TrEMBL record:
It comes from Plectus sambesii. This is Protein kinase domain-containing protein. PANTHER family: ERAD-ASSOCIATED E3 UBIQUITIN-PROTEIN LIGASE COMPONENT HRD3, SEL-1-LIKE PROTEIN. Coiled coil: none annotated. Residues 1-152 form the Protein kinase domain. InterPro entries: Kinase-like_dom_sf (IPR011009), Prot_kinase_dom (IPR000719), Sel1-like (IPR006597), Sel1_AlgK (IPR050767), Ser-Thr/Tyr_kinase_cat_dom (IPR001245), TPR-like_helical_dom_sf (IPR011990), Tyr_kinase_cat_dom (IPR020635). It holds the Pfam family Sel1. The chain crosses the membrane at residues 224-247.
Length: 590
């Protein structure tokens, strides 16, 4: 039993060996042992890391180690910038010493605030590690399993290298050396001397020493090297294993949005391809082993690999099979994927009703993606009766979790007054929330609001700023809008060449307005060499997508025989298409 689990005690040697240091507090105690250790009076203890029951009784057991491990995870996600509970302590009224505050704070059920960048699996693990009932806290074996699952999702190529390592066995939780790694180091680093009986702790020495913590901490931390190096994953059963995971976690599924002004729907996500073909093959084998043993997370991940054809032959049928196994075990994100498969009709007959069923299951469990999807189905009357009220209800649940797609849809609901009182100001608020998260569609919408002064003072400068952010991420609508700003010289130097550049980017993505604009630039010879043939080419691409202005322009090209053989019949056809959409004054060639 270590009794001093903290990031500061994880040391990195020059050969990249990670070790958990011991400054004299550790005691031998098996993890499956129900016994406990009672410390001596006056022993200096790291009270910010110990469990609430230890604060009261002075008793240490393996379950109190689990609690401390959770605090370490918290440190990793905050980069140990502040001491645990320092923010909570500083924000309260200063009527008492830190020990009294901490004991009352924890006994009242309060816990450290979990940072937003913590993966959902790890958030759940932290909540369990900090349960008041020690018997309900997950063991280190359970922690190891959860961490490996997160690694499989976030850093699969690193996890595979674990097998080749010659470092410490993953069967042991910690590696200790029987010597003090720094005998000259003060053992009062972030510790408080605690006197206790088996019933209660005394706080007198705590109050005296707490004032010196920060000063001592600064003096000592120069001597102790803490690292979050690559070898952490090789010691996954050790405390240090999480160091790498938590700082290098990346999201496996990147959600893409396909939308227009009136609708948005979540497109299929893709698996991050940061591994070689051989590594992916090995990863798929590891997933399969766990999946066949019934591990829901592995089943879901294997389904992702089949869906994307990474490490296995692409197969929607196999993807569906493994998604279903995980979904039947109640894994929310697998249920959401089941909804996607039915919505797009992948390996199953397309069914909005089935999609709604699975989105609903996942949404009820709190999955933000599913809540957004479920709301979208109500918004568009797909598989359910159209209901703005239900759509808003589920969008609100998703935005409460910071879902950018739902934030955009909330903006749309306010912009068009669907289910809420129309309000450009509210629409702007929600578009900005999505934009501030880096969502390209939200940035484009925010730029549009600034360009036209909807809910905010008109500002071409702000419009260009947000259009550019979205355009740089590849948003075709924003690219076309940015081209328009260059063409007109709005808050940027007028430049037909820049306009053509951005129109082309949008046009090559298949964006109809960008195609029409690029065709116009070719027709007029603005920023490019004049070419009726190129103009007709881009007008046609846009017209075939239903762009009324492009249909009109294409009709005129046929009427005049520019870039195409003259044809009144073709001209009339395209004029008619445009007229049917109510956008064209020309009803027939004149």
């Amino acid at each position: 039993m270590h009794r001093d689990i903290a990031v500061r005690n994880v040391l990195l040697k020059l050969d990249f060996t990670l070790k958990v240091a011991d400054f004299g507090l550790s005691r031998k105690l098996k993890e499956d042992d129900d016994t406990y250790y009672v410390g001596n009076k006056g022993t200096a203890l790291p009270i910010r890391y110990i469990a609430p029951e230890t604060l009261k009784s002075g008793r240490f057991s393996i379950t109190t180690e689990y609690w401390s491990f959770g605090v370490v995870v918290w440190e990793l996600f905050t980069f140990a910038e502040k001491q645990p509970y320092s923010v909570e302590y500083d924000s309260r009224e200063k009527n008492g010493q830190f020990y009294e505050f901490l004991a009352e704070y924890l006994s009242s059920g309060h816990r450290l605030s979990i940072p937003h960048n913590v993966p959902q699996q790890i958030k759940s693990l932290l909540s369990r590690l900090w349960l008041s009932d020690p018997k309900k806290r997950p063991s280190f074996q359970v922690c190891r399993k959860v961490i490996r699952q997160e690694l499989m999702q976030s850093c699969p190529n690193i996890l595979l290298k674990e097998k080749a390592s010659h470092h410490a066995s993953e069967n042991s939780l910690f590696r200790f050396e029987d010597k003090d790694v720094n005998e000259g180091t003060s053992k009062t680093l972030d510790y408080t001397s605690v006197e206790f009986s088996t019933s209660a702790l005394l706080s007198r020495e705590i109050q005296q020493n707490e004032k010196h913590e920060i000063r001592i901490r600064k003096r000592v931390k120069r001597r102790i090297v803490v690292s979050v190096g690559l070898l952490a994953v090789l010691l996954i059963a050790m405390l240090a294993a999480l160091l790498y995971i938590l700082l290098y976690t990346s999201v496996l599924e990147t959600k893409n949005v396909t939308s227009n002004a009136n609708s948005t729907f979540l497109a299929e996500s893709t698996v991050v391809n940061n591994t070689s073909a051989l590594e992916l093959f090995e990863l798929a084998k590891e997933y399969r082993t766990s999946a066949e043993e019934g591990d829901a997370e592995a089943q879901f991940q294997l389904g992702l690999l089949y869906r994307e054809g990474k490490g296995v032959s692409q197969s929607d049928k196999e993807a569906m099979k493994w998604y279903r196994k995980a979904a039947d075990q109640g894994l929310a994100k697998a249920q959401n994927r089941m909804g996607d498969m039915y919505f797009y009709g992948r390996s199953v007959s397309q069914s909005d009703e089935e999609a709604v069923k699975w989105y609903g299951k996942a949404a009820e469990q709190g999955d933000a993606d599913a809540q957004y999807n479920f709301g979208w189905m109500y918004d568009n009357g797909r598989g359910v009766s159209q209901s703005n009220a239900e759509a808003i209800k589920w969008y609100r649940k998703a935005v409460a979790q910071g879902d950018a797609n739902a934030q955009i849809m909330m903006g749309d609901m306010y912009y068009y007054g669907r289910g809420v009182n129309q309000s450009y100001e509210e629409a702007l608020k929600w578009y900005r929330k999505a934009a501030d998260q880096g969502d390209a569609h939200g940035q484009k919408n925010l730029g549009w609001m600034y360009e036209y002064g909807r809910g905010v003072n008109q500002s071409y400068e702000e419009a260009v700023k947000w259009y550019r952010k979205a355009a740089d991420q590849g948003d075709a609508n924003a690219q076309s809008n940015l081209g328009w700003m260059y063409q007109l010289g709005r808050s940027v130097p007028q430049s037909d060449e820049e306009a053509v550049k951005w129109y082309r980017k949008a046009a090559e993505q298949g964006y109809a307005l960008g195609q029409k604009n690029l065709g116009w630039m070719y027709e007029k010879g603005r920023g490019v060499n004049q070419s009726n043939e190129e103009a007709v080419k881009w007008y046609r691409k846009s017209a075939e997508q239903g762009n009324e202005d492009a249909q009109k322009e294409l009709g005129l090209m046929y009427k005049d025989g520019r870039g195409v053989p003259q044809s009144d019949e073709e001209a009339a056809k395209w004029f008619k298409k445009a007229a049917e959409q109510g956008k064209l004054a020309h009803q027939s060639p004149t």
